[in-house]
Structures are given as C-alpha cells and as structure tokens.
Amino acid sequence: xxxxxxxxxxxxxxxxxxxxxELKQFRWVAGKPMLLHSVQTFQARADVAMVVCVLPREYAxxxxxxxxxxDSDRLLLSVGGRERGESVAHxxxxxxxxxxxxxxxxxxxxxVTDNTIDRVIAAAREGKGAVAAIPVDDTIKxxxxxxxxxxxxxxxELWRAQTPQAFPRDMIERAHREARAAGRGATDDxxxxxxxxxxxxxxxxxxxxxxxxxxxxxxxxxxxxxxxE
Length: 229
Prior knowledge:
By secondary structure, the chain is of the alpha/beta class. It has 7 helices and 11 strands.
C-alpha cells in the first residue's frame, strides 16, 4: 500500500464553550486524552505517511507528554492561527511532499472510525473532495426573527457534515490559497472547494463521530465509545 496520505488534525481552539479552564482537546474522554484518540487512529493506518497536530502557539513548542504515546517518526506539531482556516493552512505547509492525499480532521471528534476514513480517502483518490456526513432524519423548519415557521425544508437533500474530510493535495492547497487571497473564510474545508466549483461529495460518516462542543458532550462521547460502528 502506498504511504501517501497526510493528516492535519486541527486542535488549536480554546474550547471556551465547555466552560473548563483546561483545553478540551487535552481533556480525557473514553480512556485517553481527546487528541490522542485521533492521532493513534490515523497512525494505525498503513497508508498514512504523516500526522500534523495543529496546536495553540503556547503548546506547539511544549506539548503534553502523552502526545508522544504515538509514532514520533510520523508526528509533526504545527502552530495554530487566528482562525480555523489559518490553522489548517499551517498544517498543510508542514506536510511532506510525498503526501498526495490530504485528510483534515477536528480533534473534537475523537471517535472517528477507520471505515469512515477509508471512505473519504477512496473518494479523494478519485480526484474529488470528500466529506463524512450523516443524512438528516428530523423534520427541518425555517423560522423568522419571531420564531414563526416560514417553511418546511425537504430533508432528503440535507446532510450533517462531519470530519474527516479528504482531498487531492493540489485541490485543497488551491482552495486555501485562493480563499486567503480573496479574504474568504468557511466553517469547513469542503466549502472552500465548493466556492471554486471543485467536485466535492458526501460519504457516509458515523454517529460515533460526535463533536465535543459543550460540557455535556463529554458524557455523550463516553456513551458512544462502547458502541461499535
């Protein structure tokens, strides 16, 4: 198997919405620090050449020791930016040239599954961007400023985007380069490719890949960790 996949794990946020003084990406959940889950999952793959963890500036030079419970030969640390897009760009710059397929993942989703990673990488190898996502099951209502319902949205076309997201390297580098030049941002990397009309598809994600945003999400992820995909 070609070892040509580079992974950028975005872990540069402050996690202020959890209400904790400790960075959420360093807190323990499901048996280990949150960030370590993702690092070890990606490094267990034979196709991954390098994992770059993008950390807050004060930790990039002095990371927590547990982070090295991994393959140090396939681990690099990068400095986070002022916003997510800048952090991802820093991680992309640090990946070695042999990484032709790029996977971008949020550390706040510690239970990413190998099957989901397989699916996004397979789509990227076909020349497309790929987003792990879950189809929306609930009925979606559009409301106005007074909370009055103005429309019911057809959920058949709606998916909840997750990470990982995967791309051919030239595609995602172009997307970030042009977004930076235009002063554009986005909440995920796929949107930068969509803005340029580049092909991006969804692949099936996993309910286990819940995102930890608020304090209550830690208990949710603990519960999900005992379930199989």
